[in-house]
């Protein structure tokens, strides 16, 4: 999103990022040129290089900010409770809300890892691992407490993340289902997948319909 | 896979397809040139146009054959049984085996839809719908028979397909888990997700370890 406050420089940088996400999502990173990007933003190509000295600096910034944003969003929404079901529900809600609001950026983050240098790829993968580790800890705690029934914590974490991120492929606001309805259905699928009692969970944490409605 | 029988023309066409899948998976469709592709195959660019008059003809052919191959593989493996649990298990096994064996083609098929003409996009989406419809029918039959517990058949089908296809993102042969082990875990996650009794299912259909081992 373009910021509405800040210096002209900050506004331009935000506009560059927004335009880059949309161009890369449409054309792919390798096919996008800095010249096309400058034209879309309405600045000279030279101006872009002030913010992003190389095209890969731009890609890396987009990906790093996406993952840092996801980790921050989770930090803000993680419940104080130790209850694995409540923590899992919060993780699912946050994951779906974050990605639906950032469809193109998610697409870019998932598809363009191939274009990062090895050192930068490692940095992005570390952020991903940190995020996935949060889910694995919830699943492990639930299994140890006998609340969840899980065969393989690592595989279950990957399956859940891919199932949830997949929402961006088909979900469009204003169609058959609202974000709140989609989230409710994904919550019950998740709870069944990990072998949790649905009843326990729905008492533990109702879907935050009001916040979802505001977020988009 | 390159064919080992057939005329030189067929061999070249197969080599072009194989090289295209790998180049598009690495660079993206928009960034790949027919000249690069010709160089990779070791033919003149003009020779490519004999098989694929336009670059988009090539992309469309790759995507159509991927989806037709998936539908054919399912036709070959679908069980004669009416039992929804046995049919669901067969669908999961076929889906995972097919996609793990075609990691790059799956990547191309999922990522490059944006580059098809509207008419061709419609044709590919029809094939996808036909494939997803098979899964929806299984889920609906299971729910109606009281064997599955499903909130939303459409959402559950999408969730399962994305969860299963996601395997290609992290699975590499020869690492911690075999295809058979991954499939077994995905089968129990699927059966729990749809609210089926795991016991009923595991009696109904053991994982075909032998076939999986041969397939790769």
UniProtKB/TrEMBL annotation, chains A, B:
Which PROSITE patterns does the entry mention?
A: HTH_TETR_1, HTH_TETR_2
Instruction: List, alphabetically, the SUPFAM superfamilies matched.
Output: Homeodomain-like (SSF46689), Tetracyclin repressor-like, C-terminal domain (SSF48498)
Q: Name one Pfam family in it.
A: TetR_C_24
> Keywords assigned by UniProt?
DNA-binding
Keyword Cell wall biogenesis/degradation found: no
Q: Summarize which parts of the chain are annotated to bind DNA, as ranges.
A: 33-52
- Residues covered by the HTH tetR-type domain: 10-70
Recorded hits in PANTHER family, A to Z, give: HTH-TYPE TRANSCRIPTIONAL REGULATOR RUTR (PTHR30055), HTH-TYPE TRANSCRIPTIONAL REPRESSOR BDCR (PTHR30055:SF200)
Q: What protein am I looking at?
A: TetR/AcrR family transcriptional regulator
Organism phylogeny: Bacteria, Pseudomonadati, Pseudomonadota, Alphaproteobacteria, Hyphomicrobiales
């Amino acid at each position: 999103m373009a910021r509405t406050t800040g210096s002209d420089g900050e506004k331009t940088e935000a506009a560059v990022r927004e335009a880059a996400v949309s161009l890369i999502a449409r054309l792919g990173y390798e096919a996008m040129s800095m010249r096309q990007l400058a034209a879309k933003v309405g600045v000279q190509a030279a101006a872009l290089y002030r913010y992003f000295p190389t095209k890969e600096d731009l890609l890396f910034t987009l990906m790093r900010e996406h993952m840092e944003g996801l980790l921050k969003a989770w930090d803000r929404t993680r419940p104080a409770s130790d209850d694995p079901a409540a923590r899992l529900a919060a993780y699912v809600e946050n994951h779906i809300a974050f990605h639906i609001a950032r469809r193109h950026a998610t697409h870019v983050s998932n598809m363009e890892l191939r274009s990062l240098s090895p050192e930068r790829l490692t940095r992005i993968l570390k952020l991903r691992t940190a995020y996935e580790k949060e889910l694995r800890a919830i699943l492990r705690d639930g299994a140890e407490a006998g609340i969840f029934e899980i065969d393989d914590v690592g595989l279950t974490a990957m399956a859940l993340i891919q199932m949830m991120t997949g929402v961006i492929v088909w979900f469009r606001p204003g169609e058959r289902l609202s974000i709140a309805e989609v989230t409710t259905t994904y919550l019950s699928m998740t709870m069944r997948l990990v072998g949790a009692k649905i009843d326990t969970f729905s008492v533990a944490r109702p879907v935050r319909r009001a916040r979802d409605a505001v977020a988009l």
